[in-house]
Amino acid sequence: MPSVRVASASIATLLKACKTQFRLEQIHAQIIHKGLEQDHFLITQFICLSNALSSLPYSTAVFRRVNNPSSHLWNSLLKGHCERSSFSATVSLFIRMKREDGAADEYTYPSVVKACAGEGRVREGRAVHGSAVRCGVDGNVFVGTSLVDLYGKCREVVCARKVFDGMCERNVVSWTAMVVGYAGVGDMVGASKVFGEMPERNAVSWNVVISGFVRLGDLGNARRVFEEMPGKDVVSFTTMIDGYAKSGDMASARFLFEQAPVKDIVMWSALISGYAQNGFPNQAVKIFLEMSSRNVEPDEFIMVSLMSACSQVGCLELAEWVDSYLSNSSIDIRQPHVLAALIDMNAKCGNMERATSLFENMPKRDLISYCSMIQGLSIHGRGNQAVALFNRMLSEGLAPDEVAFTVILTACSRSELVEEGRHFFELMRHKYSMVPTPDHYACMVDLLSRSGWLEEAYELLQSMPVEPHAGAWGALLGACKLHCNVEFGELVANRLFVLEPKSAGSYVLLSDIYAAFHRWLDVSVVRNKMQERGLKKIPGISSI
DNA sequence: CTAGGGTTAG
Asked: How many CB atoms lie within 10 A of CB A197?
């Protein structure tokens, strides 16, 4: 049938040039029209392309129509599942393959093993390993390497090493997978040793070692390896930049960013999120604008960082601009972390209407978004609504965590809701059996003392099982001034002089309290003490 | 007869 062969070859040519799903479907129609649905060679090529361009159901539908599919066909469908679908779908396809007499070969296992590795399913992985041994393909480099990767990713370094040592042939990828295994469990001694023994290295091998040190927070060793590395690529730079950003060293992060010859979206993202998370929201926004001016399209990660920066600044105009920018982009705002950031930004910047409508339209409201909303209400002085929302959260059966209690106690404190604050503090300790942190105590002290319960606040501070931070004492001293209480004022100020000998604030507050009672002699004593210790009032935030 | 597989950064 020479005409069929010609048709098959010409469709293969069409497939090589095919770049869109629409075109793929046209070619599919031709395959059916010409009666080539059983052509294994052609269908294999078709499925590979369909995996990349189209959807798995489409690949599967085409596959189903083939009688007695060849190993090549099974393998290409398995690869599609392992890249685009879940662990269970891949493994059940593998099981179906074995049941339907598909002959598994050395091309079958890497996909199945990778599916196991991707979701940390080491038990199933071991079974697949056994199956590979029974098929006699465990000596293959690709199979062996995927197994080293599997055990390494599942933190079973001893097993990974056993497979690695048993391999009769290894290449740079096999060696790198072994380094990944050691680095993954934080064993950088082991990782460095294997790295040192590698007969050849590529950029990936170097980057694995660098990121291993970075993950341990060992920026010194990471930087040393980075400097030694020949041909640093965009990943090497990004790994270092992200490491510095996460350790709070934005100066080094920025320096390497400027040094990098190529900047991709992940690198921009690392810098922007670094600035946002280390409390430099204005810098984050500035870098974002610089990125935009170079025509780099932001992705969801960058937008989340930008929204976090915006929340910190609390600027409504900026928030509105970001919100509409996001809504006009192709980014799906229904993604949980994007939506959470969007609600948080709108709530903190004062657009409670927008925040509320996003919040109420969520399919299921979670703790994070509740906290954003409560904090938004709190910032804008709507304490009673914050309390009501917190109660609604409890009635929905969500269990508050430490952060949630900090948020609600702060809300109570801002709106001077003493009874509610006491209630939540008790709830936290007794119903949820949580140990309050110094932050929680600080909120309570602030709430009680500002509402005039100076003695109770003082007793709470004294009764704390952990050391309070100076902020709590400072809040109490501020309240002593507010309520003109000399007795507690002296007590608290003397504690603060010990806790924070270098801070002028407490001296100033105490002298203000004396001044309110016209005790000018005491005023001058405090001022002199302050001068003796070389402290100056900072102009601008002085005695007002 | 032709073809298919493994490692790194937010």
From this structure: 9
The mean per-residue pLDDT over the stretch A305-327 comes to 95
CA distances from A249 to A29, A186, A301, A406, A541 (A): 58, 22, 21, 28, 29
| Alpha-carbon distances, residue A116 vs A134, A137, A184, A425 (angstroms) | 18, 18, 17, 45
Distance A334 CA to B6 C1' (A): 35
A537: containing domain: 435-544
Phi, psi of A131 (to 5 degrees): -60, -40
Q: Is the CB of A117 under 7 A from strand B?
A: yes
Q: Please identify, among A263, A298, A313, the residue that sits at the C-terminal boundary of a domain.
A: A263
Confidence of residue A502 (pLDDT cuts 50, 70, 90): confident
Q: Residue A413, SS3?
A: helix
Distance CA A255, CA A349 (A): 32
CA dihedral A517, A518, A522, A524 (to 10 degrees): 140
CATH code, domain carrying A460:
1.25.40
What gap in Å lies between CA A250 and CA A442, rounded to an integer? 30
- Closest listed residue to residue A411, CA positions, set A400, A398, A395: A400
CA distances from A188 to A182, A308, A383, A493 (A): 7, 34, 50, 49
Q: Please report the pLDDT score of residue A539 as a whole number.
A: 45
pLDDT digits (tens, 9 = 90+) for A357-400: 999 999 999 999 999 999 999 999 999 999 999 999 999 999 99
Query: Considering only residues 152-181 of protein chain A, which place a Cβ less than 7 A from any atom of strand B?
Result: 171-174, 176-177, 180
In whole angstroms, how far apart are CA A73 and each of A68, A97, A134, A433? Answer: 10, 10, 21, 57
Sequential DSSP letters for A196-262: HH-SS--HHHHHHHHHHHHHTT-HHHHHHHHHH-SS--HHHHHHHHHHHHHTT-HHHHHHHHHH-S-
Q: What is the pLDDT of residue A374?
A: 97
Residue carrying the six token digits 């002290």: A445
Looking at the 3D structure of chain A, how many domains does it have?
2
As separate numbers, helices (DSSP H) first and strands (DSSP E) second, chain A gives 32, 0
The answer to whether A106 CB sits below 7 Å from nucleic acid chain B is yes
Nucleotide nearest to A72 (CA to C1'): B4
Nucleotide nearest to A177 (CA to C1'): B7
- Domain end point (choices A213, A233, A263): A263
Asked if the Cβ of residue A260 lies within 7 A of any atom of strand B, the reply is no
